[in-house]
Amino acid sequence: MQRVPFWNYCVFVAAATLSIGYARAQSHPAEEPMVAEVSSGHAGGRLVLAMRSEPKTLNPVLAQDAPSRDVIRCLTADLIHINRGSQKTEPALAKSWTASRDGRQYTLRLRRGLRFSDGQPLDADDVVFSFQVYLDEKIDSSERDLLVVGGKPISVEKVDQYTVRFEMAQPDAAAERLFDGIAILPRHLLEGAYRKGEFANAWSVSMAPAEFAGLGPFRLKEYVPGQRIVLERNPYYWKEDGSGHRLPYLDEVVFLFVPNEDTQVIRFQAGDADILTRFSAENFAVLEKQQAAKHYHLDDLGAGLEYNFMFFNLNGVDPKAQPEIARKQEWFEDKRFRQAVSEAIDRDSIVRLVYNGRATPLWTQVTPGNRLWVDPAIAHPALSVAHGRELLRSAGFSWKSDGSLQDSHGRPVEFSILTSSSNAQRVKIATLIQDDLSKLGMNVQINSLEFHTMVDRLLTSHDYEAAVMGLVSGDADPTSEMNVWMSSGDTHLWHPNQTQPATPWEAEMDRLMQQQLVELDHSKRKRLYDRVQEIVADELPVICLVSPNILVGASDRVGNFHAAILDPYTLWNIDQLYIQ
Amino acid sequence: MTHRHKLWAALALLVCLHALVFFAGFFAPYDFAAQNRDLTFAPPTRIHFLDAAGNFHARPFVYGLKNDPTSADGYAVDQARVYPMRFFSRGSAYRFGRVLPSGLHLFGVDDPGRLFLMGTDAFGRDQFSCFLYGGRISLMAGWIAAALSLLIGIIVGTLAGFYGGWIDQILMRGGELFLALPWLYLLFAVRAELPLHIAGWQVFLLLVAVMGLVGWARPARLIRGVVLSAKERNFVLAARGFGASDMHVICRHVLPQTYGVILTQITLLIPQYVLAEVTLSFLGLGASEPIPSWGTQLAALQQYYVLSSFWWMFLPAILLVPVFLLYYAAADALQERLASVPL
Q1: Inter-chain contact B200–A418, Cβ cutoff 8 Å?
Q2: A–B interface: beta-carbon pairs under 8 A
């Protein structure tokens, strides 16, 4: 399935080019637009969106923050794209591709006759240039890691004006997905800056719109610091709707800078913004009441990919430097202790009290929203304080007369849970856990710290005992979580950057993650990743708690609004949105 | 003589307030951490004297609550369940005056009935109990920080005023440095560096101590001013003429002159630091869950849905207004009284 080179609707496109294309092939080949599966919609109108902070840059290679990425996604395009609706890959700037039998070589054929938003043509040189920039160690793009497969960067080679060949050191099961989000850059605009070593300064937010050109549905029109960024329709965009009308439908997209969620909610409610992406269940309840009166509708898309969990510090900390933590790790390292904690946590209460019921309880890292990878066989042990106490007793713990828990040396079981003070939901989760664990006789403190301080303690100084956190990957494929589940990964939260796997089950997870990376058969990969989920549910390096539902809202004026559970939730089909 | 009455009235009310807070365990019907997960954001319970049939009951009673998705706040009164109020009832354990273990509460209702005078929060905790217990942290923060500030202020101000010259220069320039210090950021930094395994309330006390230590400059300036004028008074000059030591002159003749300033400063600084605690907890830097404070109670109002959906969440904020007014009234009356009494 992975190697099918053509998608059905490409055939039609190829036929169209045969008749008129050849004569002008060298200078102006006829355009090969992609036909999107959309027929309703009409041109014109402006869409207003609110974003939480200003984009820091419009340089796709350097952007790391969500607002920058949201804007850049409207301005640029990639070769192969992950359809956020189906969670599968589809052709984009590349009209087709073939993989070699060993899965190490990919040959991509570009659509002919495409133009950047400034009218200049696109060809293989732009693609080679783009990958050269993304792979440049001096540029230090966060995407670079993804393009290093089997320890070596992907090699990129121009075959002809419209064909590019990519070669990897080892087969990569998710190779097609690597291309998603790698924006193709205009060589004619950026090569100069790149050669002069000034690429890092190129395409700042405050550049003149004429300096920018991309292949996305929109192009830059205006940036007003502190207020808004305005995009206008790209007349050269390469997609058409079913009736031959060139997309996008919208004339303008306006991103307003609105600093926090509550203000966004108020402005959406007032009709100042047309779309509201990701907000709390409490605000959902507030907005829900006025849906009809204020002409908007809300959607609860069910579980997204975010998973919230609690975990203990399993780093090999130095008993001399951090004696307190090292002493408590005797408890944390005992699987029965972690199981007792997991069984005493009332996940349904978290769903109800923290998320107003708009969340799903979890026992492993893959959420029900990840339809292709969720393992329905994972056990859901029931809430049981009694069984938790039994487990603790078998692990040598006992209870004092006042009900407090003590270990086999008679030391009271007390520990602290770290959370980020800026995330009200996680502080609430920790408060519920604190109360739940008191039923086991554990005395739990909550420390809510500023986010960066917390991350520093978790990943660098390892100066913590337990923490409540959440992770969300950009893609549904397990490859995007390599850095979490590999013991050498830097997001292997409970014990990051190990040189050797510390436990047999971490060694097994390493092996499984490596195998699934190179296994090209989907059902075999699925079995491998199912086993990883089983290990997580059984060994509990992270005690998975809950996955919040993706909540979105849109004004009734917005047509073709189909939000997805993958980032960018509501704007993934912005080229098809229209104003009714 | 009205200002005297005003002073005594304000002081009496302040004593009552502090007694309420100090004996929170007795006056609060529930433990501050007790969660009622089925009664989150429940409105204040109505106390009835008349039943559904219109009969009068000398002993007031409350009705049970049931979930009702159709009503505005999600709850409906269940008239089938009647819980008479009990006075001096037995309930959750606490330490009377923080010493004697006790389970006696001023009032309460039988389980599973609940009496929430000020409604409940997101975890179904009784807001009234939290308000009383929260006062412990908030008022303690005010007192400790004010005491620290004043202590340092008195020492520094007296030394600077009495000796003058380069000592005065160094101490007062140092004080200006502290005045210019952005204490909020200092606290963020201190909070980030504290070890984790010290309890939440210890963290909190440390933060309060930092606040108090940073705040000494203003009282020091005021006291220096008083000392400056006091040391030129004839009786002080006379004492020095008789060969009294510096220590004797400061303690017997100069410090008593500052007594008025110190008293008014106390009544002004305490509410100021209570407010600082409220700000800190509002920003998530204060006492950690589940220990309540007035600031954490206000922090719930940061969320739009709380603000727009549950009016009783404003009650702690509204109650704080008279608390501050009392302190300022006391300060005001003190000042008037001191102005009318010749020193």
Answers
A1: no
A2: 80
